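Peptide deformylase
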Amino acid sequence: MILPIVGYGDPVLRKVGESITPDYPQLSELIHNMYDTMYNAYGVGLAAPQIGLPIRLFVIDTEPFADSESLSAEESAQLKGFKRTFINAQILKEEGEEWGFNEGCLSIPDVREDVYRKERVTLQYCDEHFVEKTEVFDGLIARVIQHEYDHIEGILFTDKISMLKRTLIKKKLQNIMDGKARPDYRMRFYNKKGR
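Predicted structure tokens:
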């Protein structure tokens, strides 16, 4: 089932997500719905707060990045095969050089800005079967993980840009809050009349 994506300004996007247990209600259905919602919006990642749930859960599928002409065959293959569910994730370490990449967010449609993040991340998490893992990720996969991880920490990519850039996008952010954005996927807007 495709769920509405929560828009910028909703307080749930600012909450630190709570850890969940294997008996979380209808967890496998929720994960399935999150993938459906992400694919419907042409996203590469989706965190539970973006569908209104303040829990430590996010899903990623980097296949859309795999066709980029700037990637090596090895990088492309790595991105093509990367589909993963992350539950109760904790970043243990971020390392390497910071590098910029033009990021967007399904909760903040039509806004894209360069964000600088470390190139490598060590993550402890549970998969959808609650098998605990600790892995190191790098490149674009690390970036998508860091972006989605920020969501479960109540952080948005717009928090990581300069004050000047935030000022320049202020009107766009207000339009999203007021329900004036028109993405081609379902959204729930914070200030929209009749809500």
